Task: structure prediction
Amino acid sequence: MARFAESVRGTVAQSTLSLFDHAEYPLKNTLDYSGDPGLLGPGSVSWIVLADPAAFVGGMRGLLIQAAHPEVVAGVGDHSRYRADPFGRLSRTSSYVTATTYGAMPEVDRAVEQVKRFHRIVSGVSERGRPYDAGDPDLSAWVHNALTNSFLVAHQRYGQYTLSSNEADQFVQEQTAIGQLLGSDPMPTTAAGLEDWVSNHPDAGPTRAMADVIDFLKQPPLTPGIRAGYSVIREAAIATIPDRLRDILGVDTRPGAEMLGKTATASLRWALGFSPSWALALQRMGIDRPAGLFKQDPESRVAS
Result:
């Protein structure tokens, strides 16, 4: 029985991680920067939150909410290859989050510069006739704040450890340090202020480009086995979106979505453990890893 359980765990882990293996791992040289705490450091709430598999739900929620801004989603539709290369885009986004959260400062700077370089070519006009530019502080703030809010909400709903109100505020404040590197503005500094800013943002509204993204996220090119788990994660994410934004996005909450989401994230926690990137960051700092949290070998991702 133990051998069978380990086989199942390995299969689930490999299937999940394969979705994010379409970009270079951003921390492959991180142990070269011994003692570098990076942008956030080992005392941060972010290192814990982003390591929990509930972050998968948060990432999906962030993608959905980001699509509700007409100018942001116009940039995605006009300049992103998300249909032709969905796993590449997913992997690059994941790499950016990993690098800015857990990387040493040279790795943080490299990830931010890559994003800025791409953003320089992202401009145009949205369906409602407004010009957009990915470097615009307001548009950058929507992308950043939607993701920060989504990681926090998903963690509070599906994470192993519920944050106190002070810890939730600390997480938001830590994430503003990342947003500042991209020039995002405004960035609320409390969990309640962030929730209000995202939920009631006056520029959110439906567009054809948004509908295209939502349709794609309903039926991405996944194998049947992975699609079943993906659907549970997507519905768990939708269950946490405020009513106003759900109405804009045209998505509905399905009965039992939250319960299934808790089961799915617990299963991922059993199969994957907490992120090996957190373990690597702790190792870079010479700090012992918390016992019982890690299932993957972090050094398998590191350059020899």
